[in-house]
């Protein structure tokens, strides 16, 4: 893909997403039966998350799949996408059915438009709300665990 094609594709993706609080880029165009965004390129359907990932980070390594770390299936924000192995993707899917994001201990509070962290470290519970991005919430957990 040359630079002009890449830019055109970036604009198409941009036009089909609804950028929400929390940083999610919610796909508003066609999705497959599992709710995963689909974009047609040269009349061929492709996984939009994979395309968005490749535009931002380069080719997905062979055998890897692209998942949304935020746990929102319709999200195509390249910052929320990660290339992982199938088994990592399965583990993440299980984790995200427990919270609402792919990051353990982090849930999205739709009513407050922010992320909530609820974790237990050495038997002590920690709760903190008000994170605007999943990265911020994940960083907070990292800091708490390192203390
Ligand atoms: Zn997201």
From TrEMBL:
Q: Signal peptide position in this chain?
A: none
Q: Where is the HNH nuclease domain?
A: 47-89
Q: Name one Pfam family in it.
A: HNH_3
Keyword annotations for this protein, in alphabetical order, are: Endonuclease, Hydrolase, Nuclease
Asked whether the keyword Nuclease is assigned, the reply is: yes
Record-level Gene Ontology MF annotations: endonuclease activity
Its domain of life reads: Bacteria
This chain's protein is named HNH endonuclease
- The organism encoding this protein is Bifidobacterium margollesii
């Amino acid at each position: 893909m040359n630079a002009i094609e890449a830019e055109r594709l970036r604009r198409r993706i941009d036009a089909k997403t609804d950028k929400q609080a929390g940083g999610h880029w919610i796909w508003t165009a066609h999705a497959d039966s599992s709710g995963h965004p689909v974009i047609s390129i040269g009349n061929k359907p492709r996984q939009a998350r994979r395309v968005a990932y490749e535009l931002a980070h380069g080719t997905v390594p062979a055998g890897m799949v692209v998942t949304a770390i935020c746990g929102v299936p319709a999200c195509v924000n390249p910052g929320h996408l990660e290339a992982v192995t199938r088994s990592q993707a399965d583990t993440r899917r299980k984790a995200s059915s427990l919270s609402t994001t792919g990051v353990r201990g982090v849930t999205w509070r739709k009513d407050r438009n922010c992320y909530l962290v609820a974790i237990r470290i050495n038997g002590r519970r920690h709760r903190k709300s008000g994170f605007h991005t999943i990265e911020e919430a994940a960083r907070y957990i990292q800091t708490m665990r390192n203390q």
